[in-house]
Amino acid sequence: MEKSEYLDLYRQMVEIRILEENAMELYQKGKIGGFLHLYIGQEAVSTGLISARRPEDNVITAYRDHGVAINCGLSANEIMAELLGKATGCSGGRGGSMHMADVTKNFWGGHAVVGAHLPLAVGMALGDQLQKKSGITICMFGDGATNIGYFHEALNLSKVWELPVLWVCENNHYGMGTAVDRASAVPEIRQKAAAYNMPSDSVDGMDVIKVREISERMIAEVRAGSGPQFLEILTYRFEGHSMGDPERYRKKDEVRKWKESDPIGIYHKYLVSEKIAKESELSKVEAACEQIIAEAVQFAESSPEPAPDTLFDNIYADKN
Amino acid sequence: MATLTMRQAISQALWEEMERDEKVFILGEEVGVWGGTYAVTKGFYDHFGAERVRDTPISEAAIIGAGIGAALTGMRPVAELMTINFAFSAMEHIVNEAPKLHYMFNGQMTVPMVIRTVGGGGRQLGATHSQTPDAIFAHFPGLKVVAPGTPADAKGLLKAAIRSNDPIFFIEHATLYQSRGEVPDGDYIVPIGTSKVQREGKDVTIVTYSKMLESSLKAAEQLAKEGIEVEIVDLRSLRPLDMGPVIESVKKTNRVIVAEEGWKSYGVGAEVSARIYEEAFDYMDAPIKRVAQKEVPLPYNADLEQLALPQVEDIIAAVKEVL
């Protein structure tokens, strides 16, 4: 990697963190409605993974999607505006926190029903294959999604048809408040891939470089025609499942311990100790991110609400 | 024009559309090597190949979900659900994904997909395999629901559905596959969301669709012998629902029967009746009568099953009640 790319990974992670911290504040002020699921603690997962894709590769994920949106190249402005439900949001204020997308960047959302987007990923990979496109489909989901039927139907069909899908389980150890070993008969989730005769691997999701390296390898193999593969990325969310989660299901000590492995801190140390970047350069990146998000909040707050006469727009694609 | 069965008409539409547009492909259970459980896709696998006529595992959610995904990338999938009763296993994708994506992402995504499925009772398949739950699917904005009652409409509507850029739930009726009718050759399109007067009359209007169109036409024949002239409006699409021809007919006859095969409660008849009362109450000379399935899970026993299903005689009796 070039130095600029190392720094850009750092920029993405910091931008996500600051965006999420600001979103939390705006939610508490009542400016963001609905549910809000923050990506704080998991930044290295999608940053490492998506930095390894090519622009033609599809990315589709679940509802914890703000970070993925940043990694796919959406601007903080349109993300923040979507959180505030504004016309300038990436989904025109129709989607909200859980339904962000930018199809021009091959970011296909943002899907809020656990596991339901996995069969869509199968079809996207099939569609690209039938049209002789070179892209693969990267489908991200949480540990909780591996217990629902859609997961099993989708993995099975992707293997039966040998489709170019990289299945990526973001295992943050809890499906809402239920620990993985209380919900899954197989606590090591990557083992489930074996049932579908699919190669699998796992990686420490707090280390963006490790995530990047393993993703590069698996994406290349899938592109080369290996058929679907399965990557489990072990991570931890530092905040509750969503805003207002009383977090009765985990001990403060456990959270504190994980916070010692802050993915941004780990990467910061790595960049300095490997002499890739100086402290002063990283501070500059951090300041720039603060600026980007401050501007995004300003942009979102000053953006117009969707016009009432657009309520019925886009129910159907056919004009008659 | 040729006289075709409903099965042949549907098969012809599919075949012609696959020849016309290479983005059209079929996926579903037993659609390929088997030739379709109702033989609609017989011969397709040999002609179009395994890539475009794709046998799937018994995974309804994956069939519809994969159809949606392929549609997002620009393909035009025709996903087949072996029966409408299995649609419940894919409900999330039929009602909560396909109809939502275009709106929820502000027009960025389109889902040009047809879901073909088969409903209806009368074949002694028991309660889980005999339902006519069409109204459920018509509840969701974003989905279009089509249910033809004649071979010509089946061909024209299926072609329109395949060319549409929206998700279409296309409901066939198992006991109509052998019904015959004149079908226009070649590119025959029936616009989705258009009702049609299938028989003209001045005394009473029967609003109906699918299998009950056949029953209503039989009832009308018998009533004609008694000097009662029935007008029949075939809805053809349940969403969008074209009330124009219905209201026009009501203004002419002032008396209405709504005949459907599904259960009466919260059904198509309930919706159509309410709309008539909202839009044409002043024209009504008698309360609307609904003919529908009795409110039981359909039994296996042939006589009991027919007792529960709406019959030609029920329609005739209803007409006489409103006159």
Give a description of the structure.
The complex is a heterodimer of chains A (320) and B (323). In chain A, 42% of the residues lie in helices and 11% in strands. By secondary structure, chain A is of the alpha/beta class. Chain A has a single domain, classed as Rossmann fold (3-Layer(aba) Sandwich). In chain A, strands 2-1-3-4-8-7 form a six-stranded parallel sheet, sandwiched between helices. In chain A, α1 crosses α2 and α2 runs parallel beside α8. The radius of gyration of chain A is 19 Å and the shape is globular. Chain B is of the alpha/beta class and 323 residues long. Helix content of chain B is 36%, strand content 21%. Chain B is built from twelve helices and 14 strands. Chain B has helices spanning 6-20, 44-48, 60-72, 91-97, 101-104, 134-137, 151-163, 211-225, 244-253, 268-280, 302-308, 312-322, and strands at residues 2-5, 24-28, 53-55, 76-81, 114-119, 144-146, 168-173, 180-183, 196-199, 204-208, 230-234, 237-239, 256-263, 289-293. Chain B is globular. The chains are: A alpha/beta (320), B alpha/beta (323). At the A-B interface, β2, α5 and α6 of A face α3, α4 and α5 of B.
